[in-house]
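Worked Example 4.2. Consider the chain below.
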Amino acid sequence: MSTQYGTESEALFLAAKDGGGLSRSTYLILALAQQMLAGGVIFGWQALLPVLYDYGVFAESCKESGEPPPCLKMRSKLALVFSIAGSANAIGGMVAGLIMDRLGPRVARMFSSLIVLCGSLMLAYAGPESLMWFPGLACMGFGGNGIQITSFHISNLFPGNEKLVVSLIAGAFAASASLFTLMRLLHDGFGWDMRTLFMAYCGVCAGVLLTSVVWPDKPFTSPEDLEPLPQSNEDIIREARSEDQSCHSLPMDSDAYATSRDSSFHGGGDSSW
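Applying the procedure from the previous section yields the following structure tokens:
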């Protein structure tokens, strides 16, 4: 496919060069992997609830009513933790978009990854009655949406398949909810406690943060939005010669040529007299 840049592949090469020189497949694989590891993790909260019940999170609330845990007040507090995290997830997307416009997708992605890491650290050291469950999960939701927002521009590297790439990114975001299910399996099958589970996840978040360093400084644009390449002197000379040859090759109308010749002849005769 030919474009104003010569070929579509040349335009994509320029876009990738601005982002650090990595291939578009590498950017896509990296985006999907980071999404699955730290994107929408909080939406698997329901799968983690049995582990939280065993850990006795907010179990003291059940003493007031005399009910055995998990009582209504205990479940209500855990539901409130998720509600706040869901709201933070929506706000995180807006904040990441603002940072992306001002400082670029790399800074926005590293900021979002750092927030997720901080949230997982809070949950790792949160006690059963600690209030850190609220800001901890909220930070994970806040940063997770930012990772998704800074991934969408990757679709511009795949002309004609932009919708497919966006769908893959959204699917990876949803698939990340299975991480809490994995934590539950590790707890039930291997006896991992809450601190061990979230400290291991902190290592995952640290890996996401480190790999965000290779993210582009500027968002990728489609080939149609890229600025045309400057013409070299050889291209300018070649175009000038082709235009000159086309002018000389134009046929002249015979009647116009005869009229011009007669007028020149008579004009010359008048001037001689």
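The chain has twelve helices and no strands. Residues 19 and 222 are 13 Å apart (CA to CA). Compare this with Example 4.1 before moving on.
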